[in-house]
Description:
Layout: H1 2-11, E1 24-25, E2 35-36, E3 43-44, E4 46-47, E5 51-58, E6 81-83, E7 110-116, E8 125-131, H2 147-153, E9 156-160, H3 165-169, H4 181-196, E10 202-212, H5 214-224, E11 234-238, E12 261-263, H6 264-277, H7 286-291, H8 295-298, H9 301-306, E13 310-312, H10 321-326, E14 335-340, H11 345-351, H12 360-371, H13 373-382, H14 391-416, E15 421-426, H15 464-483, E16 503-506, E17 514-516, H16 518-521, H17 524-537
Parallel strand pairs: 3-6, 8-9, 8-10, 10-11, 11-14, 12-13, 14-15, 15-16
Antiparallel strand pairs: 1-6, 2-3, 4-5, 5-7, 7-9, 16-17
Amino acid sequence: MPELRKSWRRCLLPLTLTLPVVLLVAAAAGPERPVADTDRGPVRGRSHGAYSTFEGIPYAAPPTGARRWRLPEPAARWRGVRDAGAVGSRCVQLPAVGPGGPSGSEDCLYLNVTAPTGTARGARRPVMVWFHGGGFVDGAGDMYPAERLAVRGDVVVVTVNYRLGVFGLFGHPELGGAPGFALADQQAALRWVRANAEHFGADPRNVTVFGASAGGLSVCAHLTSPASAGLFHKAIVQSGSCSTTAPPWSLLPTLGTYEPFVPEQRTVADGVLAAARLGCGGSTAVLDCLRRLDIRTLMTPGLTQTFSKVSYGGAQLPVEPRRALEAGRFHRVPVMQGTTRDEMRLFVAQTLAAYPVGDAAAYRARLERSFGASTARAVEASYPVSAYPTPAVTWATLLSDASFTCPALRDSSALARRTATYGYRFSDGDAPNFTGLPEAPGLPYGASHGFELPYLFPMVPLTDPQRELADRMTGYWTRFARTGVPADAGAPWWPRYRSPASVLSLAPGAGGIRTVDARAEHHCALWDARWPAVTRSR
Length: 538
């Protein structure tokens, strides 16, 4: 679903690319340049008072040349002390907004560590490993400043780059299928954490993986991947449940059903077609031919859109993740999972000019196109235009429920049957618009997709009540990482997920944090009964 991915990419506007120069120096460390050991050699970071950062640490060898489309290999050892005072290259990606060629580098498998200074509150600090969003086609770990989590929560935070688009999700018969290099990179980063956490004062036996959007989908994948067994001990899924989807033709009349996970054979077939179009299909060594192509030839909008979905049916993900959850085929670790209240407003806003929904007639036409006449009548009964400020808000509301909220609740119910699970909904309707994109007329963003991120990572200014909510959320997230229970001192109680009626709503102000019946508020009885049939029929 290219427009959906493009809209999400606009949420996370890339910062200015920094190409680090690796400096191997042997000078003694000072108070502002702390040194930490790693299994590849020592690194010199930067001190920021209450916390230190170590940036641009390679966790795998550069996947360049003959290593393109190979599973990650260990990074080479280095002599002396490696400078870790600047971020590493981002992985190759197209601009998040507007036209332009690719930026970044294939030499991009770097991570960043943010660690509190001073004495830990326990024997060792928990580790939180963040996988960024961006539709598996853009983004980077350095976009997420982690000092709030590290300092307030007394945790060590690791943010990770991983291969994107055609470099991370390509498949071909000569590869034996679609190996899932993006997920394999993340697993390599987790192995790095296991080997090196103690050098940063952290506990390698207490690792939480967390991520939003594509990062949330990544966490979902790791929950069900045999290759991720033992690499983490808790999981937080933000707006990226295993069942995330979108109805057909819901954003543009040319777009079918959105599926983030696809059968491996589909990816492999796409790879065969792509190789032929690139002039490598008739070669006796297709991969050798493809590996000789430059970045600009491979990182095109068409190939980026084609190879932006995670494949299942191979060794990495033997079973479609949502079905794995339903069957109980997932790692038994505590899970926090949630969505934002108005997930789809951001995406609808980006397509309104091309596909307007300006009145009740246009709204009804969209319903019938996406769901068919009989289902459209039931949906309209639950979401009448008269109950919402505008037809666009009505449409975005039902899409948020059908695509994100209710699928996440279904997955949480499957998880809760076998492991400790906690559900949330981010509900601040006045959350700051950190995307830089103007709102569409008649469709305020509200608590849209990704709008909880500034409450965990200090990206933009917050009001006083929002800062209080950010403190609460940071406490919940980091306490969960420490103990498996999101309980923060002085904060409202967060009940364990027993049913969709035990979801914690997160909003600022008095009474803003409270338990809600999310299934009832988001009409999930309608979607649970009808959505599977709708997707199968389209």
